[in-house]
Amino acid sequence: MSHRPAVLPGSPPHEQSRGAGATKPMAAPRTCRRPRDGQRFRAQAAAAVEAETKRALIRIGTRGSPLAMAQAYMTRDLLKEAFPELSEDNALEIVIIKTTGDKILNQPLADIGGKGLFTKEIDEALLSGRIDIAVHSMKDVPTYLPDGMILPCNLKREDVRDAFISAISGSLSELPEGAVVGTASLRRQAQILHKYPHLKCENFRGNVQTRLRKLKEGVVDATMLAFAGLKRLDMQQYATAILEFDEMLPAVAQGAIGIACRGGDDAMGAYLAALNHEPTRVAVICERAFLTALDGSCRTPIAGHARQASDGSLYFQGNVATPDGKRLLETTRTATFKAAEAEKAGDDAGQQLKAEGGPDFFNW
């Protein structure tokens, strides 16, 4: 019994015809398209590899917490809405970067170092070219920026107020003597103890979900979170009460998202310019000027809020306190609602409180 040798696709016609009794080469059928098919498959494979390795047009750097991711997704969606070319597959990529503040959770922020705890590693990735833009909660951004980096964009601000959360009380004023309020913020601690010295404050760190879990477990009697964060996570139902400014003045730039890029990157600058909300940017400029004048950081209980009044002017409120709340200095300013005037008003307010506090006020 004879066996016909195996025939490989694409073999020359005379090889395909060899076998028992073969006497002459067999002509290739005119209908054979295998060489052309091979070219098509190779082209398809090359296209697949190119698509797989093609770098995103914009790489968005962010922390990995649920809130930070929600803010990065918000940025991504706004870019897609504003620029149709960014709606294509793989045009936008979110890059998660772990920061010092994310790694060290068992110490108060003030004890770790204060400035740049949630931004340093992301800024380094931006400057090294690993990402193209960086999305930050503005209240985490130091008053200085690294050389080579600019922050030209603030998204429209969310509700700036703090949310009070408790299972045993409807408000701060109703908490019983000795009740424990969990907070990692010296600003909140100072304002609480200033108004309610019968309460206690304990360091209480972690993301929104972690803090709510600890509260449910009875680790503390109450806590406070930025209402903006709860809203962006669609968790506003957990707020027991929303605190007005006379009870809790918010942190500088609370509720604002900032997006940074490299200086001189005109393409990214153009994208971000389209997303910028100028009223938010002007208010944040004023508040950060106040913070700069006081040389503020996570070690300083500073609060400040600027907004556009009904008559179109800028109105600013600010305070600085000792961590125990025993001394609290306050000030206000009005100005034209323009960036240069806003910055001047914030700086002037900060210089006033710095002079009032004296050289020993900030030596804690």
From TrEMBL:
UniProt cofactor(s): dipyrromethane
Enzyme Commission identifier(s): 2.5.1.61
Chain segments carrying region Disordered: 1-37, 341-364
The Porphobilinogen deaminase N-terminal domain, residue ranges: 58-268
Compartment annotation: Plastid, Chloroplast
Domain of life: Eukaryota
Name of the molecule in the record: Porphobilinogen deaminase, chloroplastic
Source organism of this protein record: Ostreobium quekettii
Organism taxonomic ancestry: Eukaryota, Viridiplantae, Chlorophyta, core chlorophytes, Ulvophyceae
